[in-house]
Design a protein that fits this description.
By secondary structure, the chain is an alpha+beta fold. 36% of the residues lie in helices and 14% in strands.
Length: 276
């Protein structure tokens, strides 16, 4: 049966927009039998597909497609019968959605951002710009940025002329990192003597860690954690590592879309893994 949501999805796919069905609550379906109702334990609202054994990604933005044989195929047939909305992957077509969740957020956008295509939502508006960027939630009160590695609800074509994403929007994801207090680890054997040859050695290490994070093309969460782990392992026991160094790493992670909370969790988990 060709439902209204399926018709919309097929129309969008034909125009090159990668789409997927959403169930009630704006949650994506699992697209294989093992993942029905998220039974596999996947995390459909996160930035990576869930940890299932499917031969292809089957969760959230990673499942969005323009292939009509997939959109209208048997794997999604029951999903369209239960669907409550159509979603799309903005970054997949070079777009960024500034999701304004209430009237105050809309007022901020009107004062701050250049006019572009707008789409009304239940509580606010979507402002759609040309160009993609890392996504981030809660960049300010009531404002999310949806572009790469996320999905957004399709609520219609909107009105107005779409403009290029401004630096004002890009700057929203470079937030001041959450304050980090480095708890001194137990003094190791050797009275905690610094084994670094010179301060430049630590500076190079932090710079390399920043580069590793900012150049990550995928698995950003895992890259951030592994980088934090490596930095703490090399520099965390001698007293040389400071809040300023940690802030540089947090800022690099946030340019890739990580939230301050995720940064703090990754840092804490790395310290715990190293017994600090």
């Amino acid at each position: 049966m060709n439902t209204p949501y399926l018709s919309t999805a097929l129309n969008l796919a034909d125009r090159g927009v990668p789409v997927l069905p959403l169930r009630a609550g704006k949650v994506p379906f699992g697209n294989c039998p093992a993942c029905r109702d998220n039974a596999c334990g996947g995390r459909p609202n996160m930035k990576t597909p869930g940890p299932c054994d499917c031969p292809r990604p089957c969760h959230a933005w990673a499942a969005a497609t323009t292939d009509p044989d997939v959109v209208a195929g048997p794997a999604w047939a029951s999903a369209w019968q239960q669907a409550a909305a159509v979603a799309y992957h903005p970054g997949g077509i070079g777009l960024t959605v500034v999701d304004l969740d209430h009237a105050a957020a809309v007022a901020w956008a009107r004062r701050t951002l250049p006019a572009t295509r707008t789409v009304p939502t239940t509580r606010g508006e979507h402002w759609i710009y040309q160009g993609s960027m890392p996504s981030a939630n809660a960049v300010r009160d009531g404002v999310d940025i949806k572009s790469t590695m996320v999905y957004a609800r399709w609520l219609g074509p909107g009105t107005g002329t779409m403009t290029t994403i401004p630096d004002t929007v890009r700057a929203q994801i470079v937030k001041k990192p959450s304050p980090v207090r480095l708890v001194t680890a137990p003094v190791p054997a050797g009275n905690g003597e610094c084994r670094h040859r010179a301060p430049a050695y630590l500076d190079r290490g932090i710079a390399m860690a920043e580069q590793r994070i900012t150049e990550a093309a995928s698995a950003v969460h895992a890259t951030v954690y592994r980088t934090f782990l490596a930095v703490l392992s090399a520099h965390g026991r001698c007293g040389c590592l400071t809040d300023a160094h940690a802030a540089r790493l947090f800022a690099a992670a946030q340019t890739k879309g990580e939230s301050p909370r995720h940064c703090a969790d990754a840092w804490s988990n790395a310290r715990t893994a190293l017994g600090m």
